[in-house]
User: Which sequence fits this backbone?
């Protein structure tokens, strides 16, 4: 019987503890240690009978894990990942890959030099809903993709904003929430070539946006719109429609529509709309449900990370790929500030 893979976790906050829960439930890996300077993390580690370190570098040196999951604050992603690369330890880095495209560029260069595999935690790419939508577009089931519509509308409770950084730039729905949806759209529809955007903080008056409207041009010619607000009671967001996280009451509504010349697909309701013959608005539309497998994308991501560590699979989301998603988010912010159309490609070129 082969030995279990030892995976350490840097950052024992909410998402870090979810990773720990999955590691402990897996038959193929074991928790190699926790790195987090907070006393609460030390108590948590002792309760789980696992080594605890205030500094991730001490964990790397003493425990020599087979892999590390980096679930720390965004500003720590780069230094922690660089230390993992220097130690020859593969890492799974929570999204966003770093706190800026320039930092992600530095990490890309370090990964290329070291040859140490790094996987980024845009876990929704492992979701069967997103995989199926990508397949529908890639195989031409929808025909030529023409338009994409995305909604991220919900109401965050007032106590959410008692944490100071959530009221400041970088703490709003663009970087914290929309980055997931941008990654979904890139994965399903291809690269985003141009961005226009408007943002507003009219509801709360904080330094950070509460509402945004995006206009996207994809490299394949399709156009997209995305509307975002964390200040409205509504059922149209991935969190409330996908059923990924049981803490959110699931709504039977779509949050994405992918439209093509042969058909359109709603997600995550996964209904394919098309004509059986004589296409045109006078003809009846056919609604076809798309069958899906059911599994936890975070658990599938952990399985994939183990395969990356073992060299059996290449990272589904590389650092360079995740940098592309971060560049779109930065392009959205720049477009909203300047009132101009912004290219995410130019954002990445400027960081080179």
Assistant:
């Amino acid at each position: 019987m082969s030995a279990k893979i030892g995976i350490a976790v840097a950052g024992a906050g909410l998402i870090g503890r979810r990773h720990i829960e999955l590691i402990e439930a897996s038959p193929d890996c074991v928790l190699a240690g926790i790195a987090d300077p907070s006393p609460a993390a030390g108590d948590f580690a002792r309760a789980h009978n696992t080594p605890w370190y205030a500094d991730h570098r001490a964990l790397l040196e003493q425990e020599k894990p087979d892999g590390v999951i980096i679930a720390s604050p965004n500003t720590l992603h780069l230094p922690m990942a660089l230390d993992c690369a220097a130690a020859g330890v593969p890492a799974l880095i929570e999204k966003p890959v770093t706190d800026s495209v320039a930092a992600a560029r530095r990490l890309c260069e370090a990964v290329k030099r070291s040859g140490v595999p790094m996987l980024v935690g845009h876990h929704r790419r492992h979701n069967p809903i997103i995989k199926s939508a990508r397949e529908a577009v890639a195989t031409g089931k929808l025909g030529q993709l023409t338009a994409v519509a995305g909604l991220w509308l919900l109401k965050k409770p007032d106590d959410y904003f008692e944490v100071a950084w959530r009221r400041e730039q970088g703490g709003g729905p663009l970087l914290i929430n929309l980055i997931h949806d941008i990654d979904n759209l890139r994965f399903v529809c291809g690269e985003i070539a141009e961005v226009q955007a408007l943002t507003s903080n009219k509801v709360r008056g904080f330094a950070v946006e509460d509402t945004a409207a995006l206009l996207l041009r994809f490299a394949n010619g399709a156009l997209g719109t995305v509307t975002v607000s964390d200040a409205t009671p509504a059922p149209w967001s991935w969190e409330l429609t996908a059923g990924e996280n049981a803490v959110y009451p699931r709504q039977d509504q779509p949050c994405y529509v992918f439209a093509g010349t042969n058909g359109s697909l709603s997600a995550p309701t996964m209904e394919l709309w098309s004509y059986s013959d004589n296409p045109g608005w006078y003809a009846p539309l056919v609604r076809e449900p798309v069958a899906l497998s059911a599994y936890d994308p975070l658990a599938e991501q952990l399985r994939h990370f183990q395969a990356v560590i073992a060299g059996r699979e290449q990272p589904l989301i590389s650092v360079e790929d995740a940098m592309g998603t971060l560049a779109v988010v930065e392009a959205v912010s720049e477009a909203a500030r300047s009132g101009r159309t912004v290219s995410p490609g130019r954002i990445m070129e400027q960081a080179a």
User: Anything to note?
Assistant: The radius of gyration is 21 Å. The chain is about 35% helix and 20% strand. The mean pLDDT is 95. The longest strand covers residues 145-153.
